[in-house]
Amino acid sequence: MPVIVETVNPLPASTTVEAIGTGSALRSIDVFSAVTGRVTEVAFVAGQMVAQDDVLLRLDNQAETLAVQLAEVEVRRARQLLDRYKKAAPTGGIPASEVDAARTDLDRVQIQLDQARVAAADRVIRAPFPGTVGMPLVDPGDRVSSATLITTLDDRSEILVSFNVPEIHAGRIAPSMPITLTAWSLPGQDFTGAIESAGSRLDPESRSLAVRARVRNDDDLLRPGMSFGVRFKVPGHPYPAVNEVAVMWGKGGAYVWRINADNTAEKIDVTIIRRDGPRVLIDGPVAKGDRIVIEGVQSLRPGALVKIVPSKRVSG
């Protein structure tokens, strides 16, 4: 009798995992001053996008500017003295020890100049990376110290989403695994990202693994601190996948018809694992490459000789 067959190919029985996550900025800092001083200029407004090294705040720097100028004078003096000693040394007018002392003195005042420039640079607070600044928490005329919070700075170009995965799925988490996120504050919008990293150990109380994902934020819709619904699939054990029309039902449960090498039909009892669209994942003595009947099953009997025909409708 004519039948149409389909070759079995295993498919992984993937599982959809859902979790609740919390977002954070790719980079996020609280901005403080390295030194104490009086604010002379606040160079930003709340929510402003800044580039790396943009000025955020200036402190009074009169003493530091004078210190730099004085150090520059000392460097010029020491260099001129060393140049004179070098010219006079070949004639024997200046001993070598004096030349060495002058060279050491130049090195010393050069270091003092560098220190003065560092101190002057500390009077200007700059953005260490591009991002969005928060509200300014100081005003011109305020006196700040290293403990005074000036503002916040967040790089929101990407959002990191942290969530926990149950222990049963921990061993199947891998970097670059795609995920889908839904922000509770933005209903109807899905965002795609990928798992970036996972913890090295399980939490002994919750029996879960800490996982972190990364999602692009090109439209700047997402904010640090947002809550997210996270969905992703983890691969499972591979099972034979057959067309749903190949699965028959009898008193003993589900079964399929396999065509052996001698073109005889054999009834194979199977267990349904799950459906995946038009495919059904089954468990039973079915292997990759087996020929499973998808049309012409109604008249089959165990051991019946069949003729495999091209994929078209056959009479039952």
- Helices and strands, in order, run as EEEEEEHHEEEEHEEEEEEEEEEEE
Low-confidence segments, given as residue ranges, are none
Q: What percent of residues are in strands?
A: over 45%
Tally of separate helices: 3
Mind telling me the C-alpha Rg? Answer: 37 Å
Secondary structural class: alpha+beta
Q: Characterize the main sheet.
A: 6 strands, mixed
| Mean of pLDDT | 91
| Total strands | 22
Cα end-to-end separation:
9 Å
Share in helix: 10-25%
Shape: elongated
A few lines on this structure:
With 316 residues, the protein is α+β, with helices and mostly antiparallel strands. 18% of the residues lie in helices and 45% in strands.
Description:
By secondary structure, this protein is of the alpha+beta class. It is built from three helices and 22 strands. It has helices spanning 62-88, 96-121, 167-170, and strands at 2-7, 9-12, 15-32, 37-42, 49-50, 55-59, 124-126, 131-133, 143-144, 149-166, 178-183, 190-203, 208-216, 227-234, 238-243, 248-250, 253-259, 265-269, 271-276, 279-283, 291-295, 307-308. Strands 1, 16, 17, 18, 21 and 22 form a six-stranded mixed sheet that branches. It has a six-stranded antiparallel barrel with strand order 3-10-13-12-11-14. A four-stranded antiparallel sheet has the order 2-15-20-19, with no helix packed on it. The longest helix is centred in the first third of the chain and has 27 residues, at 62-88. The model has no long low-confidence stretch (mean pLDDT 91).
